[in-house]
Structure formats: C-alpha cells, structure tokens
Q: What sequence folds into this?
C-alpha cells in the first residue's frame, strides 16, 4: 500500500490486469472472428496493408477503452450511461445515441453467437439445431447471472483456450502455405501502397463496431478504482498484444490462402473453414471446432453480461426482489430476444449492420474519447 496525501492508493495486481485484458480478448473473439468473415471483409481485402490495418485497429480499440475505463474510474461513475453523459456534457442527451448503438450491436452479436454456436454443435455432433440453441442459451444464461467476477473468470479460461487453439490451427495453416516470404514479396510488388488508404479507414471502422465491448470493460475495469499505477492503461496494453496476435495469426493465414478460398464456392463466407478443409487434416478441424464454439459463446457471454449490468439497478426491474433474480430476468430477456431474432434470419442485417455501426462509432465514440475524454481526465 502507498499513501498519497490523505488517501491510501493501492496498486492493481498483475493477475487482475491480465484478467481484465483477457476479457476484451475473449469478447472480441466472436463469431465473425472465428469464421474469418470479418478478417476477410476488413483486412485480407487490403492485401499486405491489412496486417498494418489490424495492428492500428487494435491500437485504436484498446486505447479508447483504456481512456473510457480511466474516465469511468476517475470520476467514480457507476454505469456506461453516466460515462457518456460525462463525456458529452453539456450535451448530455447525446448519450441516448450510444444507447441505441449498444442495443443494436448487442442484439446482432448475441443473435449471431447463439445461432452460430448452435450450428457448430449440430455440425460436429449431429445434434438437433433447436436443442443446441437451448443448450447454448442456457450456458450463456448461467454464465451471466453471477456478476462481473464470474464473467472475468470464465473469459480468462475461454480466452486462454482460444489463444492456444489459434496458435496451433493458424500456425499450422501458415506453415502449410509454403514460401510465405516470396508470396508477400510478390503481393507488395503488385499492390504497392495502393491499398493503404482503404486499410486505414477499415481499421477505424473495425475498431468502431468493436466499441460495443466498452460497457463490459467498464464493469470489469471497475476493480481498478482507487489504484495508482495506471492499471487501466496496463491492462489494455496487454490486451493490445493478445488481440493483435490472435487477429494477426488469422489474417496472416487467410492472406496466405486467399487464392484458395476466394475461388471456392461460398469460400468467402466461411474462409477459415474452407482453408482448413483444403488441408485435409481432420485433427485440425477438431481444433477449429473448439475455437469456433469458444469464440461464439465467449462473445455472447460478455455482451449479455454488459446488458444485464446496465439494467440490474434500474427502475425497469425495480419490482424484482433480489439482485440475483434481476440478473436472471434480464439475462433471460436478452437471450430469448436474440434467439427469436436469429431464427428469423439476420444475414443481411448483420452483414451491413456491423459496418454502419462502425461508421457511426467513429464519430460518436472514438473521436470524442480521444479528444474530450482525454481532456476531462487531465482536468479531473
């Protein structure tokens, strides 16, 4: 413990810093990440410049989340609603726009995650799709009703498993691609810097729609309140390396095999699965199945928890007697709603929705936090 003036300020432990860092990694590694669809749409399409783009995107994402957590803890705020009121003040009502962004992104992401995880279980084990939806929904439900500590613990274990599986599966795919150095040398000669402007724009768009992770990170990062060693910054610095490594492995492998999956019918829809099937290694498909399932479930858990955390102390559930029962009601509501919507078919909404939400977030979240947010932290 260390005294500063009349206050006693403790330092955050390394374990807590890494735990919060892993929550962002587990939440970021969702369905679009696991299928390779997002990597192909935002990074592989830019060629070699996509590797720079993904690093820039993760730097933007972890940087603004660190700013958001610091602002949240410095002013002792208690919800993301309070955070964005503080950020937008004196235009407090702008907070409602973030609310809309958050609700749309949560419903889209959780719907995709639950439906995708159910499809994966059905494909790998031959189980009935609707039974799988119920099983996944129950798993997400029980993981989100015990508070942020439970989510941190689950995310830490899931994130670690995802990281190991990514290293094995994607590392093998890169090795099987052959002469990677020659491949990228040829691409650079053909493309030059022509794709760089698009790559930079895509980095901001990708980081933009990933801002849906902010409410979860605020709740988990609240353990840093009263700490004096810039724990928020350190946790996001660690998360930058985790996310850049995981996303980088996926993009690098897909770049090596781009000519394969782009020439395969529907290959661009599920590029990672298409590439791994091309290698004809059954054990690799098993490892990928684990990645896909963990990514889908971990993303659904963290986003559902963010919704629960937002409303558990609100008037919406004022008549529900206990905190635990409030969490049960809220978690069940968002899961049931997401399942119903996913059954109705969200392909086009998700395809275009993520992009449009990313555009909105650049001006609604990224720029305000990098400017006004930093100024208010220094002023505070």
A:
């Amino acid at each position: 413990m260390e005294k500063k003036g009349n206050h006693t300020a403790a330092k955050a432990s390394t374990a807590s810093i890494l735990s919060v860092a892993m929550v962002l990694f587990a939440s970021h590694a969702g369905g679009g990440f696991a299928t390779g669809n997002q990597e192909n749409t935002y990074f592989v399409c830019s060629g070699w410049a996509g590797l720079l783009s993904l690093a820039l995107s993760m730097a933007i994402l972890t940087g603004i989340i660190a700013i958001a957590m610091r602002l949240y803890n410095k002013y002792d705020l208690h919800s993301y609603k309070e955070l964005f009121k503080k950020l937008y003040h004196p235009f407090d009502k702008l907070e409602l726009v973030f609310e809309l962004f958050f609700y749309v992104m949560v419903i889209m992401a959780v719907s995709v995650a639950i439906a995708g995880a159910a499809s994966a279980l059905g494909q790998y084990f031959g189980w009935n799709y609707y039974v799988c939806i119920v099983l996944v929904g129950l798993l997400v439900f029980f993981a989100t009703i015990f508070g942020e500590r439970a989510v941190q613990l689950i995310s830490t274990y899931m994130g670690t498993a995802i990281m190991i599986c990514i290293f094995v599966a994607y590392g093998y795919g890169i090795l099987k691609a052959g002469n990677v150095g020659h491949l990228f040398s040829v691409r650079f000669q053909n493309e030059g810097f022509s794709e760089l402007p698009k790559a930079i724009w895509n980095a901001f768009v990708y980081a933009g729609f990933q801002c849906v992770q902010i409410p979860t990170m605020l709740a988990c990062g609240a353990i840093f309140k009263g700490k004096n060693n810039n724990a928020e910054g350190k946790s996001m610095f660690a998360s930058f390396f985790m996310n850049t490594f995981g996303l980088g492995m996926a993009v690098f492998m897909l770049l090596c095999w781009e000519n394969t999956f782009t020439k395969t019918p529907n290959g661009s829809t599920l590029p990672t699965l298409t590439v791994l099937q091309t290698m004809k290694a059954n054990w690799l498909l098993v490892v990928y199945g684990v990645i896909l399932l963990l990514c889908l479930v971990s993303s659904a858990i963290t986003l559902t928890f963010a919704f629960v955390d937002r409303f558990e102390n609100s008037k919406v559930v004022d008549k529900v007697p206990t905190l635990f029962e409030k969490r049960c009601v809220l978690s069940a509501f968002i899961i049931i709603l997401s399942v119903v919507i996913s059954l109705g078919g969200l392909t086009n909404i998700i395809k275009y929705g993520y992009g449009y939400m990313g555009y909105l977030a650049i001006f609604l979240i990224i720029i305000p936090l990098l400017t006004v947010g930093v100024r208010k932290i220094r002023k505070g």
Q: What stands out?
A: The chain has 17 helices and two strands. The beta strands are 2-4, 7-9.
